[in-house]
Specification:
The protein is mainly alpha-helical. It has a domain of 141 residues. Helix 2 packs antiparallel against helix 3, helix 3 runs antiparallel to helix 4 and helix 16 crosses helix 18. The N and C termini lie far apart (93 Å). Keywords: Repeat. It holds the Pfam family HEAT_MROH2B_1st.
């Protein structure tokens, strides 16, 4: 009955708002909530949580008149009730600016109680509260003037010394509470303490990651990322010496059950890799690129996601860009469609970040075109997110993106023209012709001599071969016929000097006929007759 009544009061406060209570009623409500949640020393979650929620709701709107009532339940030399600690933690999250005025007092009450914690419940609860207070204090620091901020680092250093002595322990609840507190706490630790204990902090995560549970992993990853961030600020040399170990821990967690597009679940660890790459770019990129070529698909997916996020940054130097592109092209060729979809994202991002034209560009371009020629996979359902059609469309988007880059127009023109004669690129002919037409227009506007440059680049196929390939493509009226005809018209001077004047009045009307049909059924006889005239 007590639980039901408390839950009813809790719902009433949520619906009407505790701000409507006058001061005497607010104090009376907090007093009842404190009494109820601390009445029994046993763990009675429904009853105690309802009382705690009432206290937090009222204190949030009446902090300065009620918080002293909460703190009066914490007495020196006596462990407070576990429900009271939960309430203090929740208050710190809901009253960031207000609780800052009492932060020194709260820490002076709690930190001396750490050595008194003997059972696992209290060893878990006190670090949990201290971690919440650290997070609250960090947020307060970001808003308050620097000269008005109280120095609480001594309290957190003392807390760390005691809590770290509880590890290692076979009790996962205690390990988790301590490890989660390390993250927000480490920014307040002294430089010497952090340098001496950085590796041990990272090592403490391993027992938790070994447990198959997803419920708390994102919180643990946030804690680990905060440790890495603090290490970059205060223990950079130590972090560099153990960088591979730290990256292995984070990478293995990212790849454990990675399934695109779930990279948001690992946002904190991904951000840690980005931060590490900013300070140690060569070492981080070598690590990631080495694992991009892993035989394990999960490792490849996680590594490609990391590579994509690092490539997205502006701090990668030109020298490293060339190394990244060349190394990345050496890993291309995996048959997995999931992997290919992520590869296409990386290749698209490389165009946006100025990687094109560096060593490895032509190899990457060839890989893109080969995937633009993928046939539909009849063995997979059309609902499969990673079927051949999805991969083909993703690489077609990459090729389209690359062809907008004005700095590599000539390179793209010469290489895409060569791919027309490649048998493996036959199914990509409509896409090739479409983008070659765009490149042709851009080059002619610049006064580029297509005929002389065509001869200089050593095109491997004869003009007759090109004519046949494009005519075959043109025969597919609704599948690239317009693009093939348009390119054929543009290249007519290369095939034969007199062809341009002959085709000038034949091809444009025929190409327009296809374009104006807008996908409607074309009269086959009329189309064939037009092609016969062209031939």
């Amino acid at each position: 009955h007590r639980t039901a009544v408390l839950q009813a009061v809790e719902r009433l406060l949520c619906e009407t708002g505790a701000a409507l209570l006058d001061e005497p009623l607010a104090k009376s409500t907090v007093s009842v909530g404190l009494k109820e949640m601390t009445m029994s020393p046993n763990w009675l979650p429904n009853w105690q949580q309802a009382g705690s929620n009432i206290v937090v709701s009222v204190v949030r709107d009446h902090y300065h008149t009620t918080m002293d009532m909460v703190l009066s339940y914490i007495q020196p030399g006596e462990l407070p009730h576990h429900a009271l600690l939960q309430a203090v933690s929740d208050i710190s999250c809901n009253c960031i600016l207000e609780i800052a005025t009492d932060m020194g007092k709260i820490l002076e009450l709690l930190v001396p109680l750490l050595p008194l914690a003997k059972n696992k419940k209290m060893k878990a609860m006190i670090p949990f509260v201290l971690g919440s207070l650290c997070e609250s204090w960090t947020q307060y620091q970001s808003q308050a003037p620097a000269d008005n901020i109280l120095d609480v680092s001594q309290h957190f250093n003392s807390s760390y010394d005691i809590m770290s002595s509880w590890l290692p322990t076979t009790d996962l609840m205690v390990t988790e509470a301590v490890v989660l507190a390390f993250g927000p706490m480490c920014r307040f630790l002294s430089r010497d303490t952090l340098q001496s204990n950085l590796l041990g902090m990272v090592y403490a995560f391993l027992p938790l990651y070994a447990v198959e549970s997803d419920t708390r992993h994102q919180i643990m990853e946030k804690s680990l990322s905060l440790i890495v961030e603090a290490g970059l600020q205060k223990a950079r040399q130590v972090l560099y010496c153990h960088l591979n170990y730290v990256m292995i821990v984070m990478h293995s967690e990212i790849c454990k059950s990675f399934d695109p597009p779930e990279d948001e679940r690992y946002i904190y660890l991904i951000q840690s890799f980005i931060d590490l790459a900013k300070i140690f770019p060569q070492k981080v990129l070598e690590f990631v690129l080495d694992l991009v070529d892993s035989p394990v698909e999960q490792n490849q997916l996680g590594s490609l996601t990391l590579l994509f996020n690092i490539v997205h940054q502006d701090y990668v130097s030109k020298h490293l860009k060339e190394y990244v592109l060349k190394s990345f092209t050496e890993t291309l060729g995996n048959p997995s469609n999931k992997v290919k979809c992520l590869q296409s994202k990386v290749l698209m991002e490389m165009e946006k970040r100025g990687y094109l034209g560096l060593e490895g560009t032509v190899v990457a371009l060839q890989y893109i075109v080969k995937n633009c020629a993928l046939a539909d996979d009849i063995t997979k359902s059309s609902r499969d997110h990673f079927n051949n059609s999805t991969v083909r469309h993703s690489f077609e988007a990459v090729l389209c993106c690359w062809c907008t880059d004005d700095t590599v127009t000539e390179m793209l023109w010469s290489n895409l023209l060569k791919f027309i004669s490649w048998r493996i690129c036959s199914d990509a002919l409509p896409v090739l012709c479409k983008h070659l037409n765009v490149l042709y227009s851009r080059l002619t506007e610049k006064g580029y001599s297509l005929i002389s440059n065509f001869e200089e680049m050593g095109y491997p196929a004869s003009p007759d071969n090109m004519l046949i390939r494009l005519l075959l493509g043109a025969s597919q009226s609704l599948r690239g016929g317009h693009e093939c005809l348009t390119l054929l018209h543009s290249l007519s001077p290369i095939i034969h000097p007199r062809l341009h004047s002959v085709w000038e009045h034949l091809i444009p009307p025929l190409a327009s006929y296809v374009s104006e049909s807008q996908g409607e059924e074309i009269l086959l006889e009329q189309w064939q007759e037009g092609l016969y005239v062209v031939c």
